[in-house]
Structures are given as C-alpha cells and as structure tokens.
Fold this protein.
Amino acid sequence: MRDLIEGRVWTLGDDVDTDGIISGKYLTIIDPDELKKHVLEIALPEFAGQAKSGDLLVAGVNFGCGSSREHAPQALKAIGVSAIVAESFARIFFRNAINLGLPAIEAPGVRKIFDRFDPARVEMGRGTITNLRTGASVRFPPLPEHLLGLLEAGGLVEKVRQELERRGGRAPA
Amino acid sequence: MSGRTSGPNGGMTLAEKILARASGLERVVPGQIVEGQVDLAMMHEQGAQTVGPFHQMGAPRVWDPDRVVIAIDHWVPASTEGAAVLHRILRKFAQEQHLPHFYDVGRHGICHQVLAEDGWVVPGDLAVGTDSHTNMLGAMGAVAAGIGPTEMAAVLALGRLWLKVPSTIRVDVHGKLGPGVTAKDLVLRVLGEIKTTGATYKSVEYTGPTIEALPMTDRFTICNMTTEMGAKCGLIAADATTMEYVRPIAKHAMHPVRADPDASYERTLSIDVEGMPPMVACPYSPDNVRPLPDVVKEGVGVDQVFLGSCTNARIEDLREGARIMKGQQVAPGVRFIVSPASTKIYEQALHEGLIEVFTRSGAVFTNSSCSACFGGNMGILAPDEVCASSSNRNFPGRMGAKEARIYLMSPAATAATAIRGRIADPREYL
Ligand code: SF4
C-alpha cells in the first residue's frame, strides 16, 4: 500500500448496496476480470465502461451495505479502483475490502467536497484527503495499526501466509 | 455516537462476555481488538471463493474439520453452469480436506437453517459464516457474524479471527403481540427505528418479557434481520426455551452466559408492542417501515408473492401461511412461490399436508433453497413488477430488475396478499 494515493474521483450517493455494486445474477462468476465488466452496473451504469486504473470512489454513508459478497470489493479492485473514501461503510464490505488490500477510508464530510472527475490526493498516514481542483480537504482518523499492517502486507492472504511460514506450517509447494 | 462504554470495573454485555471467553480474556471492552477462537465456521456457495486464498496462504489443512459446515443453498440443484462449478469446487475441497459435514443436494437447506436445526451453533459460541445473515444464529445466545470468503480462508487456516469488540445497543421489548401480529412485524418496527445504518459495527441485544416469551423460530427471525441494521451480531441470551431447543441436538459443549446486571449499553431502545399493527417495509429499503393498514389503504397490487427465505420459512411460518390459504385461491394474475427453508421442513410440510394446501390454492411449492430471495436463481422479477415477500431485503435489484418493487412482511401477510392480489392485512383472515 502506498502512503500517497492520487487519482480521478467518481462520486456516489448514500447507501450504495452490494446489489448495486455487483448484482445477484453475477455471483457465480469467479474470474475478477469477468466480474469487473459488471461493476456498479446498477448504482453507476457508465462506470465500468469509462473507469481508468487508479480512479477513486467517493461515496456517502453506508457504502457496501447488503450482503457479504466479496465480489463487490473484488470487482472494484479488479477494475483498478485505488481507494474508496466514504462518509461511512457497511461492516462486512469494509472488512472485505481491507482483507483484499483495497484501502477503504472513512472520512466524514468527504462527499460534499468532490464533484465527478475532480482530482484527489489521499495521504494515508496523515489522514487527509484533498480535492486538488478546489483545494478543499477533510481529515480522517488514520486506520488502526493492524489494518494498516494488513494493507501493507497486500491483504490477508499475504499476512496469514507469512504467519504460517513463521510457524513452519507451510505446505510443500 | 460513541456514548458510554464499560468502565474498568463495569459488567459486560452478552456479546462482550462471549467474546471475552472466545479470546481467553477475563474481560473485554468495546473498541478493543481481540483474537477469538472460532467455535463454528460455515460456508455456502460463496465459500468456493475461500478455496483459492486458503491454498495461497499455504495452509496444509483445515484447523478442525469437525467445526466446519458446508451448506449449499443459493442454487440448489445448480440452475446455471456457474453454480455447478461453485458446487464442484466445494465438493472437491471437502473431499481433499476430509470435511464430513457437507449438506449436499438432497439433504440441503438454507445454511443458517441447517446450522440451527442440527445444533451446530450452541449458546456461548463464536460462529462465523460466509453469509451476512449468519447473525440469525445469535438467537442461540451466541455471537454469530458474517465474514467474507478471504477472511474465511484465514479462519480455516488458523481457527482464529481478529475482531473489534462492538459496543452494544439493547432493544428492550415489552407488551403482548396481538393476533396476526408476529415477530417479523416486531423486527420491522425495530428496523424502522434503528435504520439500516443505526447499528453498524455494533451488537444488538434483545431483552424484555416479549422476547423471553417468544419461541425459537421467532427469535431466529428477529436476529436474522439484525443484519439489515448493519450490526455485527444480534443476540438473545440463552434461557429455558433455548436450552430445551438445543440440548437434544447440540454438536459441541455449551457455555451459556447472560449479560451482567451492571453491563453498559451504548443505548437502550424501549419498544412497546401492545396494540401494534402488522408492519411492512416498503421499497427500496428494509427500514422504510410503515404500518401495514396504511399501505393496504393505498391498494398496492402485486405480481408475485414469496413465502420463503432464512428469515421466515420455518415450519411455523408455513403453517401460518397454509392456515390462511386453506380453501382459498391465489388471485388471478398473481404468482405465489412458497419455499421451505430446509429439506427437514419440506418433509414436515409434506406430512402435515401443507404442500397440498398450497398447491391446491394455486401456489408453487418449491424445493428448499434461498429460492426467489436474491434474484439469481428463480422467481426473478421483471422491471416494474411488484412483489410481497417474507424475506429480509428489498434494495433495488434484490429480486431481479432494479425497478421492481419489493414489500417485506410477515408470512401471514404474504398469504393474505396472495389471495387478495393486493397488499392485505392477515387479520382479516383470522
Ligand atoms: S434466504 Fe436470502 S437472505 Fe437468507 S441466505 Fe438465502 S439469499 Fe441470503
């Protein structure tokens, strides 16, 4: 995980639920590259066709509410979203995103300082997000240490792999 | 928002006590990060995504095959090639890892229901599942939470899970539910107050004489819909009712606990259900809750009615529906889908003659599965269609087309609605 994340912003409203991110009919798709074609199909239909790697999402409250489907953060990661900054997140979505190594940042007040395609800069360590067009910025409490650790390791898979390796429990390849 | 938390000498809430035991600590306080030993891990189709990360982690084997249950339920039997592949991945994984507790086609049921009816989650447990409604098992007096598949891979590898101890909202319920008014109406009422974000990251503990008087089936319904409040878990302390239900079926040792009398709650919501009418959650959110009679007055016509899902498809729910349907007909132009929550319930419905009541009335009685609940298997809605459902979610696109409108209600209300062809009050059919 980088301390500095910069990119173009897509804005979303409140209560974007997991059906709005990846609809139930795509849940049998395992390949992230296939999945990403349908990302945000309900909540923001033009996104999948126009998203560029490195784009950020700025959303309202309760982003990712609904089901526990990891398809949702996975599809966002696959299409190249570099971070999601929201007023607040639903619990399982937040955990899933961090576990996949996708930065999810709760920054109350962020939604109103961005319009679509504004350039943004996120400083993870300092806990600020700035609109590089208007200069407006909001502060957020930096993620707790253990979550930053997870992001730094590149997600939970890497973290557990390292722990198992330390314990000598790794299976022969 | 943060409010009071337990002081250094204060008592613990139900969730705090369970998490303290799971993490081997004398006491825990909200906000603390703990590592809990998992008592039961459940996977359904989404668990197919656990297999990849599990192998990438380099874990040689599952930490304890006797603590892992796999229950396929979303597409049973497989209705698409994609679903068939998910099932195959899980079967192969179960074989390789020697996981004996696999609810495959033929003995299947909705994952939460099979956990409940076969005693896989018992009082005092820390249970996790790859489905958000794992919260339902909190009715056992357990902390039961949904996690994603990558996180499940870590649980399978280590038998442990990190979690932040949630603060607790207490929902204290008193008063007697009137005739035709059910636990579903009660939990919808609570949702209307707490809203879909009101309990995010938190635990919701249900207490009070009304809760204590409820049978397990109703407690499952209530804890199930705690998910729609954003909660990490929803629970009801184990009492005589719980013990009577779970003792003959418990799969492992129980550690029933109750909240301390001096436990600190973030807040207490006091609900009086005396004289409360049935409730309905209107499109497009489970917290858009209104008294059912108000919606009835508006004459909302329906295209489809669904009596099913982990929230409300136990035998008691089917009996309630059948009692209203007996000798009646589904309204012309309406499709009424009834899906039991498990194969056991299916058999019971068969023995009791309920299936005949439903099919004679013009309903379709399906195999046990998630069925129409999630818009990916069967009973999918076209744009602009309206559905009355006993399930738990009505977000845009939940049961098919994003324009389709879903109204959430009790099983009795779905039956009344199927007969009338418009949203109806079950009390007219008592
Ligand atoms: S019945 Fe519906 S809510 Fe319950 S597990 Fe199945 S899809 Fe999820």
Notes: The domain at 4-141 of chain A is CATH 3.20.19.10 (Aconitase; domain 4).
